[in-house]
Amino acid sequence: MGSLEGNNMLSMVVSNAKLAREEERQENINITNTNLTINQCIGETDANLKAIITHYVDTLTYSSLRNLGYPTNQDFNYDALASLFHFHLNNAGDPFVGSSFSLNSTKFEVGVLDWFAELWEIEKSDYWGYVTTGGTEGNLHGILVGREQFPDGILYTSQDSHYSIFKIARMYRMECVKVGSLLSGEIDCVELEASLLAHKDKPAIINLNIGTTMKGGIDDLDIVIQTLKKCGFTRDRFYIHCDGALFGIMLPFIKQAQRISFKKPIDSVTISGHKFLGCPSPCGVVITRLKYINELSRDVEIIASRDATITGSRCGHAPILLWYALKKKGLIGLKNEVHECIINARYLLDQLRDAGIGAMLNEFSNIVVFEKPLDDNFTRRWNLATKGNIAHVVVLMHVTKEMLDTFVREFIQKRSIWYKHGHFQPLCIANHVGSTNCVCSIHKLS
Q: Does the keyword Coiled coil apply (predicted)?
């Protein structure tokens, strides 16, 4: 691409970004500048407050019709639990010990934890866990347990890992080795082996991605375990944390997929409850081996419990939301939803490829990766997540085939405008997804 053409494309992208921000500002200016400012000395009237919320609900309803790029399942209904929001529920402390604060939901929490313990094949007497605020807190706890086991351990994680992993390494002041990834997004075990051999003198704390954020790449747990053994790391010199934010609850329902099991030498697993299951607020679960927790916990007299969690006060409503979703769907319902999401993801992949749009879908994944739209306004309209030259859609239960048809149709229309006179060409995404999945001017010919 010539410098002039490149400058034109850059100008177009910047211009579209500014336009999108301005349109968003204009849409929200009345409610933002007039209604949301907290300046009433005597308090706002109920009628005005209701009007504000009603307007906001309308905007949310509109946005949810095009919520494609982020893993937040909108297909849920918790109306039956509305009466619980008349109570402050707080699960401070260890859910297995309880606390002196009686307005808690720890019985529901333990029920949820037992369910996940069975899913990931660890005996009730051997595990410990709690309901978190989401995947990042689960990562915070899992990696903290690993660091407590190996204070001088080195954290290994792939370059495609969630940004929270690198933030955690900084927070805990841990040495972190960023390992390369394959085109699928999964960790490159050849490079991991070289890194492990270069630091054989220190224990290994491994973060594995059970579905990477952008591509849905699944690190091969069995090969990683074999690599550790090959490099001379005995079981008492490594700790494996599995970040299964989205796929940690999906893979067990796919017969051909690898098993995430504590029968293997893993040490902690975390998932996000709001991603696949669908919850109105962020939440998650972390499970680890009970034998690690005593070193991490302290008795706290004021709450008559044990402090072993990252946060002190913990939302008591989240465990009930998770319990309700799991109880209502059942194993068969969850399995059906997993398969429906994957089928619809394959449908989207076929639609994009039939339209001549470069795209990729990993096996056992519901994340479809494709060329980044040139129009930032279009990207915002469909709530797409982007990185470099690629974007993705996460197909969850609220994403219907009709929604996908509309998205693809609009995408095709936009591309016909962007590339109309040949001044711009589809972005090259070969470095992200491989040349066979790229339709740029170079790779389309090959």
A: no
